[in-house]
Write a structure and sequence with these properties.
alpha+beta; 17 strands; Immunoglobulin-like
């Protein structure tokens, strides 16, 4: 006879990240046997949890990461069912992602130390090397590909630890996998995709190596490398131009600088066969980082990560609540991993808008007779005060965890160079909500009609950015200029005026219009079935 152990309880402490698909919470795991430790809970949002494919993907991500063990890959310890929502239990990694670090440095007009940038690149490549070589229990290669390496999926801790995150769209040869890998269409983020991935000519480990090199270049330039023009001769010129811009950002002996640029150029090669293996790239970048004469990663992180967190307002937002594991869902499963079937909802949320959970200490103190008496009184009361026809009592619902309120972004002119202190950087920051804290959009089953042609024929605007987090397709049309991408699109010298925005998001199509009159950023959201780009 199988006997369930005590249900594990997760005491929520803070909301540390939020996106279209769910939230990440800092929690304290209580095993029920006196063991407690801090963990990160990656949970599907209530709306997305109803989508079968999303549930399959988060379970797949947990299974993939459960088979990977490397110091630069976030460790996953369990996959649990909390009510009707799946959650991945991971090690909690404080700090910020590389994209946020680049953003703060750019606004402060301060460089990303070249030694530190190469160390981060070496850590990513080292993690990928382990991923590519991972095997199953029988020693067969799993052929794991991350497919979405980018700065926002790489986290740096205040002590200089580097962790690769988010294997949600990874490809893997694994029998336990539930979600079907798409055979057609882009997977990943366009500006970090290699030419062959954009052209759908192959999906190999070399594509992740390309994204790693592109991420290192972004750290040096403090801007994305951008989408490759794909054609080989144009791609070569595109890479050469970016590396020429990066050369003065490297600090060290000339021969070391040239060798570092040569390895980055090889990583960005147009042909997959010309790119180095991930392990070779990791060794080279690590060796060259030590020979550069710039600030290493660890002291840089200790000095600068607190500034990043404060200036972006990315500090965890306190929440209160308790989530209880569905113990029936893990009955008969070794290691506490729940089966795929849905178990009984045993989630308990004791939420009081920041107040500590109410402890009902007096219930166990009541004797059985007193409990029976109280129940009898309640039953009689309900019978006596049954509402008449036409009036129905409200249906009780399980309390949900509210998302933080985020102010609308207010664009400001780019700041002048300033001293790197938390106060100075925060004062110069553009007042915009970071992608991780944007309000969670709700999907709506609506298909947007094709918009009428936009009127954009004024003087060209040097640059602009249109973004929609987690969009699978984004097309911006300004007069005769058409730019497309996935989660974001950069416009260069587009005519001013009214532009059309077309987006595919969570399987639905949306349209909106923007007024392009100056260099600025449009951070779009989907709410109430409509696309808004303020």
């Amino acid at each position: 006879m199988t006997t369930n152990g005590p249900s594990r309880r997760y005491h929520l402490r803070a909301l540390v990240g939020q996106g279209a698909f769910g939230e990440v919470y800092l929690a304290e795991l209580d095993s029920g046997a006196g063991f407690r430790r801090k963990v990160a809970l990656k949970m599907l949002s209530a709306d997305v949890a109803k989508m079968r494919e999303a549930s399959r993907r988060i379970r797949d991500e947990a299974r993939i990461l459960g088979r990977l063990s490397h110091r630069h890959i976030v460790a996953v310890s369990d996959l649990v069912k909390l009510g009707d929502r799946w959650a991945v239990v991971m090690d909690y990694v404080p700090g910020a992602d590389v994209e946020q670090v680049v953003d703060v440095l750019h606004r402060a007009n301060a460089p990303f130390p070249s030694s530190a940038a190469l160390e981060v690149g070496a850590a990513i490549a080292s993690a990928l090397d382990a991923v590519f070589k991972a095997t199953d229990d029988d020693g067969r290669l799993l052929n794991v590909l991350h497919r979405d390496i980018k700065p926002s999926n790489v986290r740096i801790s205040p002590d200089g630890e580097v962790k690769v995150l988010d294997f949600g769209v990874a490809r893997v040869d694994m029998e336990e996998r539930e979600a079907k890998t798409r055979a057609q269409g882009w997977i990943g983020t366009e500006r970090y995709m290699s030419p062959e991935r954009i052209l759908l000519e192959g999906d190999t480990a070399a594509g992740d190596v390309y994204a790693t090199a592109a991420s290192v270049v972004e750290m040096l330039l403090l801007r994305p490398l951008g989408r490759t023009p794909v054609l080989e001769d144009r791609h070569h010129a595109f890479v050469d131009e970016a590396l020429a811009e990066a050369r003065p950002r490297l600090v060290g002996p000339p021969e070391v600088i040239e060798e570092a640029l040569a390895w980055l150029q090889a990583g960005l090669a147009a042909r997959p066969a010309d790119r180095p293996a991930a392990g070779d790239l990791a060794d080279a970048l690590s060796r060259l980082a030590r020979r550069l004469e710039d600030e290493p990663l660890q002291p840089f992180a200790r000095r600068f990560m607190p500034i990043v967190v404060e200036s972006l307002g990315a500090a965890p937002k306190p929440v209160t609540g308790i989530l209880v594991e569905d113990s029936e869902a893990r009955e008969g499963n070794e290691g506490g991993t729940p089966p795929l079937e849905t178990g009984t909802d045993r989630t308990l949320l004791e939420f009081a808008d920041g107040a500590p959970p109410v402890r009902r200490w007096w219930v166990p103190a009541l004797g059985l007779g007193a409990v029976v008496a109280i129940l009898a009184i309640v039953v009689v009361g309900l019978w006596t005060f049954t509402p008449g026809p036409g009036s129905e009592p409200p249906v009780p619902t399980l309390a949900s965890i509210p998302a933080p309120v985020v102010a609308e972004p207010v664009p400001e002119p780019a700041p002048a160079p300033l001293e790197l202190t938390p106060t100075a950087v925060a004062a110069a920051s553009v007042a915009e909500a970071p992608p991780s804290s944007a309000p969670r959009p709700r999907p709506a089953p609506a298909v947007a009609p094709t918009p009428a042609p936009a009127v954009a024929s004024g003087p060209p605007v040097e640059r602009a950015l249109v973004s929609l987090k987690d969009a699978s397709s984004l097309v911006v049309t300004c007069g005769t200029v058409v730019a497309n991408g996935t989660a974001s699109v950069r416009l260069r010298n587009a005519p001013s005026g009214t532009c059309n925005v077309q987006a595919s998001y969570l399987g639905n199509d949306y349209t909106a219009r923007i007024a392009l009159d100056r260099p600025r950023e449009f951070h779009c959201t989907v709410s109430g079935g409509a696309l808004a780009c303020p």
